[in-house]
Specification:
Low-confidence stretches: 1-32, 344-352, 520-538
Largest sheet: 7 strands, antiparallel
Mean pLDDT: 79
Number of strands: 21
Distance between the termini: 30 Å
Strand content: 15-25%
Helix content: 25-40%
Number of helices: 14
Shape: globular
Length: 538
């Protein structure tokens, strides 16, 4: 599974590190943002309508709550109240308009103050964001902990030509930094700068009051593209869509049999939840494209809210390839990943974040291409045989370690399918007969390992091996292994994970690539020196 060679474009040179111990705080609130104290890094402003775009959801929720309360109580008003309203109709309208004007003025003043306080800076070591008026907040995302950088355009942002830059870090959730809104070209340029600095490239700092020097975008090569028709077909053949269709049919039959619509209103929340899930999947995965570039894997998708993700090399913690029962005839697979920062609390489509999808639906070749994007080397001499056994095989073919025959009592249908394979670079766990699944965890990304046994498993001498990862759709578990074998694998795999993590190198992935290239060059020079009688380079 060797991939093509890529070279990085030249980046502007120049020193950019912040002085150790320098205070990165901004100038006093209301003043023009100047350079961070002692660092030479200027503070930048977001677009002026950012506070308005950030607050629209709160305003809509408040209006909906007031409207609901008003309509709920309007039928209980006595007749004399309506007579009073009719007598003073003009004054009532003026009063409502006046309240709306006052609220708009207060919101405008607050938005302006919030905008003057909201500022960010991209330094040599971190991305800093300062916000808040009454409750001030300072966020600092270290560049060597950046897991992904996204350019997001919500529907309202697209109407104004604006976008957000979301810097996802290993801490996830509260440690992530959202920069914006910015004009879409500025957001793309900011993404390039953050990715370059996170890779270890020195970027020339901008002078006070001047625009930052543009950082060229790394070239990319598109490898995957999913047409909308295939996404629709995959949803129609998914279990959720089939359950939704059966639910609608059952609801219609209930109305026909009983002749009453009362049960329909009670099931409306469930109906909206199922429909929202299917729509969220379609809207979030619409127009999906994946490309490879020197700064990582680039993903683009979204119908109403468009998102451009960039995942640096080595940031994917685990991969899963799934195939539903109804997808087998077409040979379709789905690929999802675990990425630190895109955890369970990351906003997504109805609890299923589209950010963790590496391929919504594709044939086997496309699924293996998606796997290659994050794991170029499977660590075996015959990857084709291993992948055949992992995706569709069973038993001990290609060196898989499977459940013993006594596990048949607990797993009569799946026991020969369940198994694991350890390669030089990753742990592979396969499972499922009706829904096939292959989990892949690189050794250096293994968070921890554990053995679990239930009462029946202890009775049959079996155990489950868990390879823990960051929160996400991938939960690798090898079920019903021989207990003694599972204990031995746990010890050996823990040692492999420690060794692989120690050899991983610096967090800045560009420096890691440069170091690997230097080692390769040294090895070639050493071999040449050995042939000519010279001492090898060290």
């Amino acid at each position: 599974m060797a991939g093509p060679d890529h070279t990085l474009p030249p980046a502007p040179g120049g020193p950019g590190p912040a002085a150790p111990g320098a205070d990165p705080g901004p100038a006093a609130s209301g003043a023009d943002p100047g350079p961070a104290a002692g660092s030479g890094t200027p503070w930048r402003r977001v677009h002026k309508i950012t506070p308005v775009l950030n607050a629209w959801k709160v305003v809509v929720a408040a209006v909906a709550f007031v409207a609901y309360q008003a309509t709920d109580q309007i039928g209980n008003l006595p007749p004399d109240v309506w007579d009073t309203v009719a007598a003073f109709r003009a004054r009532a309208v003026l009063a409502v308009v006046g309240v709306l004007v006052v609220v708009a003025l207060l919101a405008g003043v607050y938005s302006m103050l919030a905008w003057r306080r909201m500022r960010f800076a991209v330094g040599a070591e971190s991305v800093d964001l300062h916000t808040g008026i009454l409750f001030r907040q300072e966020r600092h995302a270290r560049l060597n902990r950046v897991q992904a950088v996204d350019v997001v355009q919500p529907l309202l942002g697209r109407l104004f030509g604006l976008a957000q830059v979301r810097v996802e870090t290993a801490g996830g959730g509260e440690s992530n930094v959202v920069l914006g809104y910015l004009r879409e070209p500025e957001a793309q340029q900011l993404r390039n700068e953050v990715m370059a600095r996170a890779a270890g490239v020195e970027v020339a700092p901008a002078a006070a009051g001047a625009e930052p020097a543009p950082v060229p975008a790394a070239p990319e090569r598109e490898l995957l593209q999913v047409p909308p028709g295939r996404i629709v077909g995959s949803l129609l053949l998914s279990g959720s869509a089939i359950f939704f269709a059966l639910f609608v049919a059952g609801l219609a039959a209930l109305v026909v049999v009983t002749g009453e619509f009362a049960p329909v209103f009670g099931l409306i929340p469930l109906f909206l939840g199922l429909g929202g899930y299917v729509w969220g999947r379609f809207a979030g995965e619409f127009g999906f494209r994946a490309a490879i570039s020197p700064d990582g894997v680039r993903l683009r998708h979204g119908l109403l809210e468009t998102r451009t993700q960039t995942v640096p090399p080595g940031r994917v913690q685990a991969v899963v390839l799934k195939q539903g029962l109804l997808w087998r005839r077409r040979g379709w697979w789905r690929v999802e990943v675990n990425i630190a920062g895109y955890g369970e609390h990351t906003p997504g489509q109805n609890g299923r974040p589209a950010e963790t999808v590496l391929l919504p639906v594709g044939d086997r070749g496309e699924a293996l291409t998606a796997l290659w994007l994050v794991l170029p080397d499977l660590g075996v001499d015959d990857p084709q045989a291993v992948l055949d056994a992992a995706l569709e095989g069973e038993g001990e073919a290609a060196g898989f370690l499977t459940s013993p025959a006594r596990a048949r009592t607990l797993d009569p249908l799946v026991w020969r399918r369940s198994g694991l394979r350890i390669t030089r670079t990753a742990l592979l766990v396969r499972r499922g007969r009706f829904t096939r699944q292959l989990d892949v965890v690189p050794h250096e990304r293994t968070q921890s390992l554990a053995l679990t046994q239930g009462p029946l498993e202890r009775r049959f001498g079996l155990a489950d091996l868990h390879a823990h990862s960051v929160p996400g759709p991938v939960t690798p578990v090898a079920h019903h292994l021989d207990a003694a074998v599972a204990a031995r694998v746990l010890v050996e795999q823990a040692q492999r994970a420690r060794t692989a993590r120690a050899q991983e190198g610096p967090e800045e992935w560009l420096r890691r690539v440069d170091r690997a290239a230097a080692e390769d060059a040294g090895q070639v020079a050493g071999e040449a020196g050995t042939e000519t009688g010279a001492a090898p380079l060290r």
